[in-house]
Amino acid sequence: MDKAKIVKSLIYKFTERFAVKGIGFVISILLARLLAPEVFGQVVILTVFANLAMTFIEGGLNTALVQSREVDERDYSTVFLITLALSAVIILLMQPLSPLVASFYKSPEMARPLRFYAFSLLFGAFNSIQVARLQREMRFREMMLCNLAATLAAGALGVLLAYRGFGLWALVVYYFAQVVASCLAMLAVLRWLPRGRFSMASAKRLYGFGIKMLAASLITNIYNDIRPLIIGKRFSTADLGYYNRGQTFASTVSLNLDAAVQSVMFPVLSRIQDDPGQLLGMFRRTKRLGAFLIFPVMLGMAAVAEPMVRLLLTDTWLPAVPFVVLLSIGEAQVPLTSTNLIAVKALGRSDLYARQEVLRRVLMLIVLAVSVLGFHSVTAIAAGFVLSAWLDAFVTLLPVKKLLGYGMVQQLGDIWKSALAAVVMAAAVYAFGLLPLPLLPKLLLQVILGAAVYLLAGLLLKNESLQTLLAALRRTLRGAAG
User: Fold this and answer.
1) What is the model's pLDDT at position 214?
2) What 3-state DSSP class applies to 68?
């Protein structure tokens, strides 16, 4: 695999994730200023059901398409027909089930939007194949442009509807339009429609890997989604709205950087799976870079949570501040967990991956049960997430130690410099925030101070990732000057 192509793909994927999610984040802020917290809680419930359905429809087949060494038109057509049939069945099931879901959450106004939103599964199923094909062909520039266009178009429509007073429907149409627009944009770029027939041999071969990935994905998504479902039922949709805002702040950076790394590094690592030495070297560099980028952002966000929420969302959303703090600390573990998971998937060990997922989620569900049953508090549920997230980081070490001999001591040795620099930076930023300054100047100065402290600490500690990035920057500047 050409190293320059990998770097270029990473740049495009980072740009896509942060540009798309950055625009989406701005749109969500505009919507939050126009809509009530309970509306966001209601739409969270709708999207949870849609995400679970989409996981079942994909069945791990999109991952199997990327991971397989050889894929032909029969494989793509077979996956298309399977996902299309499953999405149609689930859409039909959602029509009578929607009123029951709405009644369960004591929000009858959710029934019609849920029925409508179910139809996005048709477009989502097709889009999953388009994404797999673009990933496999390393066409991340086209993917970036398609998703940017889709987000802008859907966001403009959603904000317009919210401004006109459509409430819940504004958010539902926004999410629905984003799926549809992305699908249509990628169709225009790929110009791909299924050309082959259904192949039972392809289905069996892909499901051999995919069914285990499905089991792992279902366990993961059920665990991730059960928390908002519990909050929406046990407390209120407004409480769920506050929790969701905190989660949105925390996950915008961590999960999207993680998704960018996985989208590029999964196909790359899959192609060098027969060379453990090369795979381990690239794997370690990926982990160090992820820690260097994510640790300061997540801990810095926790340090500026209150002025950030007050400035961006107004005082109406101040109950979301504790969730921003806690969930940001929890999401800081993403570069540790995600790279371990990439390695196991890239090596084709879906059996080991599935067993690991069962262990991870059983432990996490125990923590969730204690936080829900032992405390009547949404904050306790968020604190339980922090505990389980960092526990998860250690659990995912086990198979990597077995497969690559890369255990806890080596992994901690690769990331401790970034972790220490981020903690020092967050402490300095929080202390500065205690000064009685206007919101906007305070937040801007906190960001500048945080960047300066983190870079200085990185230089003093001789952080390898910082040195690599500075060397690349110097080469770029010399090339531009020449």
Assistant:
1) 67
2) coil
- DSSP 8-state code for residue 347: T
Distance CA 288, CA 464 (A): 8
Q: What is the DSSP letter of 406?
A: -
Amino acid letter at 132? A
Is residue 320 within 8 A of residue 250, CB to CB? The reply is no
End-to-end CA distance of the chain: 28
The whole-angstrom separation of Cα 296 and Cα 331 is 12
Contact 366, 290 (CB under 8 A): no
CA distance 451 to 439: 19
Distance, in Å, from the CA atom of 186 to the CA atom of 191, rounded to the nearest integer, reads: 8
Is residue 396 helix, strand or coil? coil
Tokens encoding 473: 């920057």
Q: Which residues contact 318 (CB under 8 A, 6 or more apart)?
A: 306, 309, 310
Q: What is the pLDDT of residue 470?
A: 80
Q: Would you say 76 and 194 are in contact if contact means Cβ atoms under 8 Å apart? A: yes
Question: 472: buried, middle or exposed (CB in 10 Å: 19+, 13-18, 0-12)?
Answer: exposed
What are the boundaries of each domain within the chain?
1-221, 235-482
pLDDT means per 10 residues, the chain with 482 residues, are: 56 65 82 85 84 70 67 78 84 90 86 89 85 78 84 91 89 90 89 77 68 67 79 87 88 69 59 65 80 90 93 90 93 83 72 75 86 88 91 82 79 88 95 91 94 93 84 71 58
